Amino acid sequence: MSAAAPGALESLCVFCGSQSGHGPKFVESAGRVGALLAAQGTTLVYGGGHTGLMGALADAALAGGGRVIGVIPSGLAERELAHTRLTEQHVVSSMHERKALMARHARAFLALPGGLGTLDELFEIWTWAQLGFHDKPIGLLDVGGFFRPLLELTQRIVEAGFARRETLELVHVDDDAERLLARLAAPAAERAGAGSS
């Protein structure tokens, strides 16, 4: 496992579903992201599970020779949901500890489709950026328009006066994984203004 390629991220934390969703597009997109990360030499940091999009993501990264770090709460690991073939698997005591450790290991964040847990992780890291607790880039891979209603809601939040327009620009949105990863890896000056698209 080599170092990250020039212009690629050193590490990326990916939030995504532990379910597969309906239809093949969600699993295929997760596998594509995992393969791209491995090809670029980017370490994948994720929730440590072996099912759903999480499993597809990690399996593709491992199959490509990538480095994969999992972080899973003990309660989930004990239910045999932990991936057993990762480069590193950290078992922690709580969801709060999981999110904090994933954030420490990552240089950037990416959300794929998922359920409430994925949204919780996305919104926490987005809130931390809004409050100035970190300045790491955040991406949203909009597979098949999955996140369109969420983006409409965030626009409504701004229009209603509960957040500033700049808050939306903290998240980079694209439906193309390779293009989005390149944007997340770009210097901050190049990302400025690109924001939510």
Can you give keywords for this protein?
197 residues, alpha/beta, 9 helices, 16% strand
Estimated radius of gyration: 16 Å
**What average pLDDT do the residues reach?**
93
Category by helix and strand content = alpha/beta
Query: How many β strands by DSSP?
Result: 7
Percent helix, as a range, is 40-55%
Task: Indicate the multimeric state.
Answer: single chain
Number of domains: 1
Question: What general outline do the C-alpha atoms trace?
Answer: globular
The biggest beta sheet, please?
Answer: 7 strands, parallel
Strand order of the largest sheet: 4-3-2-1-5-6-7
User: Cα distance, first to last residue?
Assistant: 34 Å
Query: CATH topology, anyone?
Result: Rossmann fold
Instruction: State the order of secondary-structure elements, H for helix, E for strand.
Output: EHEHEHEHEHEHHEHH
CATH level-two architecture: 3-Layer(aba) Sandwich
The top-level CATH class is Alpha Beta
Structure write-up:
It is a single chain. The longest helix is centred in the first third of the chain and has 16 residues, at 25-40. This protein has 9 helices and 7 strands; from the N terminus they run E-H-E-H-E-H-E-H-E-H-E-H-H-E-H-H. By secondary structure, it is α/β, with parallel strands linked by helices. The termini are far apart. 39% of the residues are buried.
Structure described in brief:
The protein has 197 residues and is of the alpha/beta class. The protein has a single domain, classed as Rossmann fold, CATH 3.40.50.450.
